Request: fold
Amino acid sequence: MIAHAPRESGGWRTARNASLVRRARNRRLRYRAIGRIVVTLGGLTCLVLVYLALLANVTRLHYEIGRVQHERTQLVDRTLRYDDEIAQLTTRERLAAMAARLGMAERSTFAVVNVPPPAKHADARPSGVAALFPAVKNFVGAK
Reply:
């Protein structure tokens, strides 16, 4: 049996149709709550994962800074050792002892020589295109 209920808009709706609509609405409301919970938990999970990723990146950077500082300290120590070694190897006493062992003696007189600058000749090294092609030089020189 079908019961009709009047609508305000002038249409009619059966009791069966009304119960189907009510059931569908209740089902949607029930699943809407579950959907909201799932979406909320998913959003919170994403936020936690982003936070953990950022925290891991910061931790990695701290370890990198520590490693670089340790490496820098080792390089500074090595540089200081090399500077001390250079200073020790270039002392005047050590150089004098090496020269004496090699049979070198310090000169008492020194000769000063003045070297005149070289004169520029006509057949000096060619420049420009003539430098690249000797045949062109002969051709240019013949004119």
